[in-house]
Amino acid sequence: MIVFEHVGKRYGGRFDALANLDFRVDRGEMVFLTGHSGAGKSSLLRLIMRLERPTRGRVLVAGHDIARLHASQVPFYRRQIGVVFQDHQLLLDRSIYHNVALPLEIRGVEHREAARRVRAALDKVGLLHREKALPIELSGGEQQRVGIARAVVNKPSLLLADEPTGNLDPQLSADIMALFEDFNRIGTTVVIASHDLALITRLRHRMLRLRDGRLVADEEAA
Ligand SMILES: Nc1ncnc2c1ncn2[C@@H]1O[C@H](COP(=O)(O)OP(=O)(O)OP(=O)(O)O)[C@@H](O)[C@H]1O
């Protein structure tokens, strides 16, 4: 599904945020990406989203070198990827329903079909009963679940998350990770950047560890 071949990313012509990365993530895998602050986790995810291009090497997703996608193809490429951020980036003046519906509105999905999919996504994260609420009326953990519903409403084959539990207490963090595991169980490939080692070592998935932009460990679940 994802292949990094000798990938490097240099910012500003001299700083190597990522260097010589070689790894692959198979379809249906769930992988944690860990490392200190500044190790390059977000940069690596941005390469997969094609928000950045590698300075060296190639990033292949589903067999395609994504640097070669034409600008007009990029939106289609991104549709297969759901993204969850630490600060969930919800629109504060829109209801939960509308926040989750947004990716479908952008794609022009027909209204009734959109409603069906939004409700299915909200149901999966246990928030169907809050569809009319505004984000501010929800707890941090619930807001993050809305962010996950929005990420999966397009039924992406790949789900990326950047520190999705960053602001949550240990129990809520575990609940959020369990949700990602649910989506993985139904076949979605999941890559989660997290520095919460206590939590992710307990979860027993493959772990890629970055240090100063280099891959220093690739550990299968024990
Ligand atoms: N657009 C950019 N321009 C210049 N330098 C950048 C840019 N984005 C990231 N960097 C630098 O690249 C390095 C890796 O950053 P990145 O955000 O990928 O790390 P991270 O592991 O996600 O860190 P954190 O956990 O703090 O988010 C850092 O030193 C950062 O300052």
From TrEMBL:
| Membrane-topology descriptor | Peripheral membrane protein
Protein name, per record: Cell division ATP-binding protein FtsE
Q: Tell me which residues make up the ABC transporter domain.
A: 2-221
* Gene symbol of the encoding locus: ftsE
SUPFAM superfamilies, per the entry:
P-loop containing nucleoside triphosphate hydrolases
On subunit structure and binding partners, the annotation says: Homodimer. Forms a membrane-associated complex with FtsX.
Q: Which domain of life is it from?
A: Bacteria
Family membership, please give it.
Belongs to the ABC transporter superfamily.
In Gene Ontology terms, what is one molecular function of this protein? ATP hydrolysis activity
Per the UniProt record, the lineage of the source organism begins with: Bacteria, Pseudomonadati, Pseudomonadota, Gammaproteobacteria, Oceanospirillales
Q: Which InterPro entries match?
A: AAA+_ATPase, ABC_transporter-like_ATP-bd, ABC_transporter-like_CS, ABC_transpr_LolD-like, Cell_div_FtsE, P-loop_NTPase
Q: From the Swiss-Prot or TrEMBL record, state where the protein is found.
A: Cell inner membrane; Cell membrane
Q: Which GO terms describe its biological process?
A: cell division
What keyword terms does UniProt attach to this protein? ATP-binding, Cell cycle, Cell division, Cell membrane, Membrane, Nucleotide-binding
Pfam entry (one): ABC_tran
- GO cellular component annotations, sorted alphabetically? plasma membrane
Functional description taken from the UniProt entry: Part of the ABC transporter FtsEX involved in cellular division. Important for assembly or stability of the septal ring.
Question: For this UniProt entry, which segments traverse the membrane?
Answer: none
